[in-house]
Design a protein that fits this description.
Blueprint (H helix, E strand, L loop, with lengths): L21 H15 L6 E2 L15 E6 L4 E5 L5 E2 L4 H13 L1 H7 L12 H6 L10 H8 L7 H16 L4 E2 L1 H8 L3 H12 L7 H12 L1 E3 L1 H12 L14 H14 L5 H7 L4 E3 L4 E6 L3 E6 L2 E2 L6 H13 L25
Helix pairs in contact: 1-13, 2-3, 2-6, 2-11, 5-8, 5-9, 6-9, 6-10, 8-9
Length: 345
Amino acid sequence: MLDPVAWQGVAQEVSTGALPGWDRVEEIVREAHLRYSSERGGRVADYIPILAEADPELFGLAVIEVGGGLHDAGDAMHAFSIQSISKMFVYALAIQEHGHERVREIVGVNNTGLAFNSVVALELNDGHPMNPMVNAGAIATTGLIPGATPDEQWVCIRDGLSAFAGRPLALDDVVYSSEAATNDRNRAFGRLLRSYGRLDGDPDAVVDVYTRQCALSVTAHDLAVMGATLADGGVNPVTGERVVSEEVCRDTLAVVASTGLYERSGDWLFEIGLPAKSGVAGGIVAIAPGKGAVAGFSPRLDEAGNSVRSQMAIGYLSRALGLNLFASVPARDATGALSAPLEEK
């Protein structure tokens, strides 16, 4: 394991680049929405009964710049449940509260290579959740949120995610009731985590808080603001409020880059080049540090549970807006000429 102590005391520099002008970003967002509006691939999630009722034709996109620029297209203001996207922001709150090392002791940072609800992944690792984006790791993370009672933990999560969104977020009671009636596997995760000493308190109570966090109602616009807060070093670019520290943003985005789209995370990073998190209600948010965030919403999902239209549109925006973290061009000198090869310098 890499030892972070080795870099203590070393000053950290960042390189973030910039987005095109506001008008050009607005134009590209609308182009992306139009381009993929006719896509019909995928199917609406049905393992949570209420999600099966979603309109498969809904499609919204949003881009929020770290400077506060707002760009919405289509159904960007349509409300849906945040689902697994909540995992990313609750993880950030847990690190803010307990620190880098303590959270890593409880929840790892490596991809399982298996489905998000795999019991095998937990058992193979002696009860240590491999990352906070799969259900077992997310439940363990929720258990780390401060509060003397489950209700206090819930309020901490609701208020924390509201600060990321820049507005009060509310529980969708219908979604919560539907999920609470069908979350037997998550309750099993809670008990299994407790048996391995990875969860304090009543496991059913922790799972109930986790179920509530997944049922928070958001829009694609909200998700883009939340993502842009991580992109802006923890400061909400709309409200100006500091939500978490710069270090928390770095840790969160590193984990999300490798695990945010479950077993498809490697494909996503290879093709799109951005940390991103998806949810089975059809939302995806992708973050470009120092630039902003892109969010999509469309209920048709692929076999891994990721929105088909949102993936396509965010991929288009990543290329058109220059968001890919791994993209570069040859360096040029002050005259604009290509830099000379090393042996000629």
